[in-house]
Amino acid sequence: MTADRPGRWRRGTGHAAVLVAAVLVVAVTPASAAPPARPSGGHPGGATPGAPGIGDPLFPDEGNGGFDVTHYDLAMRYRPDERTVTARTTVSARATQSLSRFDLDFDGNTVTGLTVDGRTASYRRDGDELVVTPARPVHRGSRFRVTVDYQADPAATHHCAPPNNPITSGWLPTRDGFVTAGQPTCARSVFPGSDHPSDKASYTFRVTAPDGLTAVANGVPAGRYEHGGETTWTYQQRVPMATELVQVAVGDYTVQTAPGPDHTTIRNVVPTSMAGTLGPDLAVTGPQLAWMRRQAGSYPFATYGVLAAPANFRFALECQTLTLTSAGMFGAVPQSYWSPVLAHELAHQWYGDSVAPARWADVWLNEGHASYYEASWADREGYASFVDRMHTAYANGDTWRSRYGPVAQPSADNLFNDGVYDGGALVLYALREKVGAARFTAIERAWAARYAGGTGSTRQFIALASSVAHQDLHGFLTAWLYGTRTPPMPGHPDWATDPVG
Ligand SMILES: [Zn+2]
Fold first, then answer.
1. Tens digit of pLDDT for each residue in 24-62?
2. Separation of alpha carbons 94 and 398, rounded Å
3. Which of 109, 183, 189, 214 fits 170 for a cystine, CB–CB 3.0-4.6 Å?
4. Per-residue pLDDT for 285 more than 80?
5. pLDDT at res. 19
6. Ligand 1 centroid – CA 420 distance (Å)
7. Contact 204, 71 (CB under 8 A)
8. Which run of H or of E encompasses 214?
9. Mind spelling out the 3-state secondary structure of 238-269?
10. Residue 201 alpha carbon to ligand 1 centre in Å
11. Which domains, from first to last, does the chain contain?
12. Ligase among the record's keywords (predicted)?
């Protein structure tokens, strides 16, 4: 995410300082790893309730215990006359314990029906938890499907977000439809599921809208079916994705495609009324992709692009394969501002999306990397000096640690803070100064390759950096990531932190 925060977006100085938050965690369980299903004549009496959360210390109720989600099928029908959505979400999962009942994360909306493996199940709402009791226990190791029918009003108020979060609902109404924005805990207001990045899954989207409107979603197109004045658009996201990165959008859009590097397809989605002006702006996507793959290695997905939505919101979000921005950003700020923002969201596709944080405290792995490449792109394009930005971050280092905690120990009530963004980028800069540019690039590429499609933790990053650099970096990186004071910057003995005030 890139959020517009006071003091962080400096306009008119030639310096575009941008905050972007990307958060993803993924736990991928290969199908082949599933233990054999217990025979139906087993021990149903041993079934117990699944835990309401996956165990993230910052967000204890996020995700769910007792099962892993393998696939989501999201079917939505948009009715522009009512501006409502009729939805059916089918969650395919594998039980990791025998379940007498289990939870799905779901906030708001009106549930109209629920089945487990086709049988009507009982359910109740408990805050953000949808507590499901199937007609029969689900046995450990077995695969099961939960289908939830519901009605949604994209303009409704939700209570899914932690404090100080730029996003307060997973739904975002636009001039002629809606988009979605789930980071970090608001996918649950769009669809029921296991709303934590460590439970990644593949997705199928089937979105129906009246003729004249276009529906888009993450991944690649998989068919379009016209029927009775409506069209159903299908998309597949086969590479595992965190719930918070889901994008489903309906509106009067023009989809602009072009060949990209590594056999990818560039797909930008713009309001039809703005296609003539935004199309040339978004031509930067190709050069940014080519540049970013030189930093991080091959692009991890089949398609990438920007969705410019006709709504006023002051953030950009790295939805997997389809970054969300406000169309108004492009006219409201100079290219020296929005171009680095786009580089930030693109960098998240490697750092945050493909490799998601194992726990939310690891969010610096998203935002630190994205801010690092955002600043690198700004420097490359002559918008702002990278080293100057790092120097400024260094000066602020102790203040941020005092205010928000160490870089890798954020709190839930201010997850996307300056210390995670530019403070995280500063950690990476310190690492580069310590090991040299060539080894730093090797670390960056190895990280993106080793944990592609899954999750990574801070501990794993420290171990990988040490391995690739052929030196023990545990003490060095632990001080930078968990220290209450900013360590000395290698190569810059003159750099000093401002007094904490
Ligand atoms: Zn970000």
1. 223 333 333 333 333 343 445 699 999 999 999 999 999
2. 45
3. 189
4. yes
5. 36
6. 10
7. yes
8. strand 214-217
9. EEEECHHHCCEEEECEEEEEEECHHHCEEEEE
10. 21
11. 2-348 (2.60.40.1730), 355-482 (1.10.390.10)
12. no
- Using CA atoms, how far apart are residues 399 and 407, in angstroms rounded to an integer? 12
CA of 211 to the centre of ligand 1 (A): 35
- The token pair that represents 214 in the structure block: 């276009």
| Closest residue by Cα to residue 351 from 260, 428, 274 | 428
Sheet with strand 143-152: strands edge to edge: 119-120, 110-116, 143-152, 84-95, 67-79, 201-210, 230-241, 220-227
pLDDT reported for residue 204: 98
Distance CA 40, CA 138 (A): 10
| Token couple for 404 | 């928000």
5 has a pLDDT exceeding 80: no
Number of H helices, E strands in the chain: 10, 23
What are the C-alpha distances in Å from 153 to residues 108, 189, 247? 9, 10, 16
Give tens-digit pLDDT for 335-388: 999 999 999 999 999 999 999 999 999 999 999 999 999 999 999 999 999 999
How remote is the CA of residue 119 from the centroid of ligand 1, in Å?
Answer: 41
Written in H, E and C, the secondary structure of 387-429 is: HHHHHHHHHHHHHHHHHHCCCCCCCHHHCCCHHHHHHHHHHHH
Ligand 1 centroid to Cα of residue 352, in Å, is 8
The DSSP bridge partners found for residue 147 are: 90, 115
Q: Compute, in angstroms, the gap from residue 197 CA to the centroid of ligand 1.
A: 15
| 3-class secondary-structure state, position 444 | helix
Ligand 1 centroid distance, CA of 296 (Å): 16
Check residue 262 and give its pLDDT: 85
Give the per-residue pLDDT at 10.
36
- Angle, vertex CA 90, rays to CA 150 and CA 143, nearest 5: 145
Distance of alpha carbon 154 from alpha carbon 138, whole angstroms: 33
Q: CB within 8 A of 33, min separation 6: which ones?
A: none
